[in-house]
Amino acid sequence: MSGAVTKRDSDSQLSSRDDATTADFDTPEDRKLVRKIDLRLIPILTLLYLLSFLDRTNIGNARIIGLAADLNLSPPGYNTSLALYFVAYVIFEVPANIILKRFDPQIWLPTLTLVWGVVSVCQGLVTNQAGLFGIRFLLGVTEAGLFPGVIYVFSVYYRRSERSWRVAIFFGGAALAGAFGGILAYAIAKMEGIGGKRGWQWIFILEGLLTIAVSFLAYFVVPTWSHKAKFLTESERSRLLARLKSDSDAANHEKFEWSYVRQAWTDHLCWAYALLFHGFAFVLYSLSLFLPTIIAGLGFKNWQAQLMTVPPNTLAALSIWTAVWVSSRYNVRAPVIIGAAAIAIIGYIILLTAKTPGAQYVGVHFAAAGVYTGNALLLSWPGENVSGQTKRAVAVAMQITIGDMGAIAGVLIYRPNFAAHQFRKPHIIAIGYLVFGALVAAYLWFWMARENRRRDHILSQSTDEKVHEKKDYATPEVIRAGDRDIHYRYHV
């Protein structure tokens, strides 16, 4: 029959089209272009996130060398100061990304870094509990825009399949911050009494000054939007936009419509991404902020606890990069996230059941490796799977905002009256959150895999040749359909 498309022919066309699309934009010239972009974006943005994570978590190192006693913190005062940071972070994250879209990342991201560096220095100058509460809230305000801003910048430079690896390298800065933070805290604490200041004060001051110094460099290195990037030639910019246009909507100029916002708020997958991070954020921030305290609670001296945070955080960074290589190599996300949750659960079980400090310290390594790895992978997932610029921006904001509510819960659960038996109750709750996160990942895996198969089946049965034509992501109907388009495939 003329014009008819058999199932076998349709499958062949789909496969050959996908292969052709991949091949078209995986030439030696494309690889050279991507390497050039990597060298410009990855080092500086990872360094900024490392400093961000260092400046938000170094309070854990400061706590065990005198901060609580000098500021007369009430028993739950430390937990309240941590929670206030995340309250501010949640409130100001979306406004910060709105400013970014109307401004320029080349100016906005370094300015954020400069301002939070100043705030970090001021943490070393507070003299009472109220001052600590206020400065931690202000730190949350100033740091709120970095992470979602960088994720958005990645989306205008990389194709969908290229983003997870870059986000994981970027997030690895969080684990490295924990490793460097332990070494720096140990060294800086030896400045006790210099200039009439305590060792914990010098931790905030010197690490804040480091952030300020890097922020000035960032003004010259952080790139602008891809269509105006001066570090690329005109032909390279054209090629970059062509790569993005063939793969997703990243090269489009989408007009804002409230209907796209409603698409995100009514999409069960967007809520699932948010709840997935909620489960993992609980353990990420409770572990990173309380790691020195947890290790000291195993019976080690404070100076030993500072240094002993280095190995688990280093292992976490290596685990992130290994897991994301596996994830990219086999094009899977959910199984690796679930596996990371299982490893973290094993770590917490060892912490709960082991009888010796050495064995419990092994549990810390398992927990850190699993927690950081799971977070690194899940944070890039909505950026890969949500189509429509406005919908994706809302979905990412939902994930971070709802996720960081888990962080608030985590820092409040690890409070003094739950510290008995080396935080036994909080560790059990952490296991519950990890199980919840694994179940959400399994739901996403099941639903998206089933939907991909359903769409494959519909296309394979269609006899309309127009249905099998290569899609243009800039057309109005494709923009409006977004990830609900029959040709769209989820990365699972």
TrEMBL record:
Q: Which residues form a coiled coil?
A: none
Q: Where in the sequence does UniProt note compositional bias of the Basic and acidic residues kind?
A: 1-20
Q: Where in the cell is it found?
A: Membrane
Q: Where is this region: Disordered?
A: 1-23
Q: Which InterPro entries match?
A: MFS, MFS_dom, MFS_trans_sf
Hey, what's the signal peptide range on this chain?
none
Which Gene3D superfamilies does the entry link to? MFS general substrate transporter like domains
Q: What SUPFAM superfamilies does UniProt report for this protein, alphabetically?
A: MFS general substrate transporter (SSF103473)
**Which keywords does UniProt give here?**
Membrane, Transmembrane, Transmembrane helix, Transport
Ranges of residues in domain Major facilitator superfamily (MFS) profile: 41-453
Which residue ranges does UniProt annotate as crossing the membrane?
37-54, 82-100, 107-126, 132-155, 167-188, 200-222, 270-291, 303-324, 336-354, 360-381, 393-414, 426-446
Q: Which Pfam families match?
A: MFS_1
Topological type in the membrane: Multi-pass membrane protein
**Protein name per Swiss-Prot or TrEMBL:** Major facilitator superfamily (MFS) profile domain-containing protein
> To which species is this protein native?
Hohenbuehelia grisea
